[in-house]
Write a structure and sequence with these properties.
mainly alpha
Length: 181
Amino acid sequence: MIRSLLLIITGSVFLFLPSRIPLLAQSTAPNREELLTDAARILLDLPPEESISLLSNLSFTAESKYPKLSRKWAIQALEAARNLSIPTDRPAMEKNVLITLARIDLVEAERLYITQDAPSSQVGEDARADGADQLFNIIWAKDGKSGLPAIRRIALWLGETGQFPYRAIGRVISRLASENP
């Protein structure tokens, strides 16, 4: 676990440091993409309970420079979340990974968001409804009003399968009202 964290941190440092630094400009400097890929490979060998958050963080770290890899790691984190042995942890982990994916591939995140399991009776709140606030913010930021059909579809699905995202919809309504006084 510690080795995985160190690889992620090292990859993050090399990803964001300027290439003008002489040490990094040398041909012997590690390839940033290789460092991140090695970290992902190690994380995939961990149990899902340990790898999900780390893969999600790796995906977040790489999203601007390596969007294809970032998307791949977010999908792998989602698969790991769906294989959790503790079902009560699954909804929150899935939601978190899908929010990460939404920043990289919004269409895929919207599609996958409505494939999440309904909350069990053991869980007091619907993590999916909480995640809708973040997801709707991302949809609005990328698509504006044209994202309203997707927001509506997801909100209705949440209401039918668990808790309706009242707070998230309230914020969308406020944005609409401010644009159309």
